[in-house]
Specification:
Pfam families: BAG (PF02179). The chain is of the alpha+beta class. The protein has 2 domains: about 90 residues, Ubiquitin-like (UB roll) (Roll); about 120 residues, Up-down Bundle (Methane Monooxygenase Hydroxylase, Chain G, domain 1). It has 6 helices and 5 strands; from the N terminus they run ββααβββαααα. Strands 2-1-5-3-4 form a 5-stranded mixed beta sheet, with helices on both faces. Helix 4 runs antiparallel to helix 5. It starts with a strand and ends with a helix.
């Protein structure tokens, strides 16, 4: 009955106790994306119209859709971003529900030339973005990639280090990974984070692009923060190895 929302590198738990009492485990069928956005607006002190929410690497745009439509359930992780552009400038990140024609129990006759034609789905033309808006979109995409792809790997690495370095050695389970495998985990994660940081640094913003420059600073802080966590875990792991060697 709660969601985990990451905003500017910090995690916030959002509870839906009343909705859970009404529908139990199906409470996400009751809560819409708009309700989640408005609750986050009040909790974080951010203008609701500037809140962009992403789940599983996809920016969610349909505010009137229930959370279950996006595959969200209790414990799901949501990334919150701030985008001061109008929502129709955010780009086609979200898949829309398919629309099927109702069946009336009979088959319509079609012209022979149309029977072999595949159904065409025409996307409405997307609004043209300004150069600054395109840069903000690039930075948002990199932030979402980091949060949904690299951060889960970092969390697994953290659990492995904590299992290996637990002070209660008698009761802890045997580590599932060798020392080398844990070291390799750190090397892989830091390499991915550095690549992400380089991509963010490669986004060149003109001096008058205030919003884009602020977004780039936010992205750098977030990725650098994850690098700091990985390095701190590495130091903890290496210290534990030295202790084991001295026993």
């Amino acid at each position: 009955m709660s969601l985990v929302v990451t905003f500017r590198g910090r995690r916030h738990e959002v509870l839906f106790e009343d909705e859970f009492e009404q529908l139990g485990g199906e409470w996400t069928d009751l809560v819409t994306l708009r309700q989640l956005r408005d609750r986050l607006s009040a909790q974080m002190g951010v203008n609701a119209d500037h809140i962009k929410l992403a789940h599983a690497g996809v920016v969610m745009l349909d505010l009137d859709a229930p959370l279950s439509f996006f595959g969200i359930d209790s414990g799901s992780k949501i990334m919150m971003l701030v985008d001061t552009r109008p929502q129709d400038k955010w780009g086609p990140h979200q898949s829309q529900p398919s629309q099927q024609q109702p069946s009336h129990g009979h088959t319509q006759q079609q012209h022979p030339s149309h029977q072999q034609q595949p159904q065409q789905h025409h996307q409405p033309p997307q609004p043209q973005l300004t150069p600054e808006q395109r840069l903000i979109q690039r930075l948002d995409d990199q932030l979402i990639h980091t949060e949904t792809v690299i951060v889960p790997m970092l969390e697994v690495y953290q659990r492995n280090v904590e299992a290996f370095t637990s002070p209660d050695r008698a009761d802890r389970p045997q580590p599932t990974l060798t020392q080398k495998q844990i070291k390799d985990e750190h090397a892989k994660i830091t390499e991915l984070l550095l690549q992400s940081l380089l991509k963010v640094d490669g986004v060149e913003c003109e001096s008058d692009m205030v919003d884009a420059r602020a977004k780039r600073r936010e992205a750098v802080r977030f990725i650098q923060g994850r690098l700091d966590i990985a390095d701190a875990l590495k130091e903890r792991f290496n210290h534990s190895i030295k202790e084991l060697g001295s026993l």
